[in-house]
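step=encode ok
step=design start
structure_in=
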């Protein structure tokens, strides 16, 4: 289990091309949900415009250029743990916390950082570590593939968790 993320494109003649895949790149996922899906995170297809791709690439480049000035995470951006001995059914606990995390999307930023890690059950670490910065570099490469496509392609983001 975990956050699996895909960027693909569909042509006007319904041909599909996978452009990239991420695993638990929760900051990038949060960006797509906030910027392209109005905060709705239901594993749906999210259509992404060329302008949105350019903005995400710019945000990634800015975060990489300013990594030594990164805002540290706070306690509000931590995956919720089940209380030991609570007696709550695990499936119920997971569903309640996923709903709570979905409601926090768009309001959990502790700075003006558009790529602040996004907490969620099975979303992985919320630290700005080497994994985080590697995800941003991979995102730039994936976006470059998408931007190289012609105007007859619609870019689509989708996650599964």
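sequence_out=
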């Amino acid at each position: 289990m975990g956050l699996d993320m895909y960027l693909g494109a569909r042509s006007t003649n319904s041909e599909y091309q996978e452009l990239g895949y991420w695993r638990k790149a929760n900051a990038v996922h949060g960006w797509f949900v906030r910027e392209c899906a109005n905060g709705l995170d239901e594993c749906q297809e999210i259509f992404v415009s060329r302008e949105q791709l350019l903005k995400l690439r710019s945000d990634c480049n800015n975060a990489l250029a300013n990594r030594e000035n990164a805002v540290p995470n706070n306690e509000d951006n931590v995956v919720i743990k089940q209380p030991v001995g609570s007696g709550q059914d695990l499936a119920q606990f997971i569903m309640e916390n996923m709903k709570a995390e979905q409601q926090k999307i768009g309001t959990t930023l502790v700075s003006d950082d558009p790529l602040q890690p996004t907490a969620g059950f099975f979303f992985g670490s919320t630290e700005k570590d080497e994994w985080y910065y590697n995800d941003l570099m991979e995102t730039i490469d994936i976006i470059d593939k998408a931007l190289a496509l012609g105007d007859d392609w619609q870019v689509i983001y989708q996650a599964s968790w």
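step=design ok
step=annotate ok -> The radius of gyration is 16 Å.
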